[in-house]
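for the record, two folds in this file. i put them one after another cuz i was lazy. first one right below, seq on top, structure tokens after. the second one comes after a little note so u can tell where it starts
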Amino acid sequence: MIELLIVVAIIGILAAIAVPNFLNARVRALVARTYADMKAVTHGFELYRLDHGDWVPDYDGIGMGQGNSEVRTYRALTTPVAYLSSIPLDVWISKEDFVRLFNKSEKYYEYYGYNSGGQERLDICARYGIGYVIRSLGPDRAAQWGGDFLNIGLRNRYYAYDQTNGLLSSGDIIATNRGVPE
């Protein structure tokens, strides 16, 4: 009887360890997908820059026009030259929330070009070599980074998602022309 209780206790301990890992597998997979998508997009931006001598213009602050599915910034990566075969969507926000929060029709990664701010942004970006920033809301689905290019230049990561803080830790997944921090 005691041996049976010990076996049941061991199985219970193993289940307590394994079940949370299985439940978090979807979140880990979506984080990995976001990193991979952002690397593909940044690669497309690099190819665009090689051909045009500058980064993709930031037409309206987050890479797309108001209303219908006009995607002027990201469209530059697919036509007329296909730097990307398709534009990845942000998996961390629903289309309805994206329309409500940003009045945009598709949930692409937010895009901020160095040349879409004022003189202060231009100076900071020139000083630190920042050409653009793309952002995903990340697993917490809340915006942490508010366009603070200086802290990106200084590599402060208070706004960035960190897997070591737990899968649902606060922070956005950010990528720049200087890479995708992991």
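(here's the note) second protein begins now
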Amino acid sequence: MTIEEIKELLRIFNESGVAELELQRGENRLRVRRSGTNQEIVVPVAAAPVIATAPVAAPVAAAPAAPANVVTKAPEPDSGHVLVKSPIVGTFYESPAPGSASFVKVGDSVEPGQVLCIIESMKLMNEIESEVSGIVAAKLVENGRAVEYGEALFAIRPR
């Protein structure tokens, strides 16, 4: 991805009403997210360095620290945990509405069929349910983050 291509994408992004744009071409990945009046730009590009003169309205913000109940890596495969994976591409939400309590927290007991989170995809809210009974050992995704198909969302220690 060239600097000119990135500048053009940023120009189009700024002119549109799109809230988030993510593009991956080979090992190059560009993610731009609009948050209120602030904009966050994450551009890890392996092939070419990105110069800081890219036209943006706000400075690049450092990634916020993950909340205490978010684990950044999945448990070891031999740990006996069951991973709940996203069945679709979309946006992860831990609660039914902004400001309301999470469906589950780390340490909560869950039963089969209990709603763990919502994945929004194409303006549809898809409830993700537990398939096992057990204890939520880890929440692996930050609220409001885009998730991919097959990405681990929770680790559950079965009973």
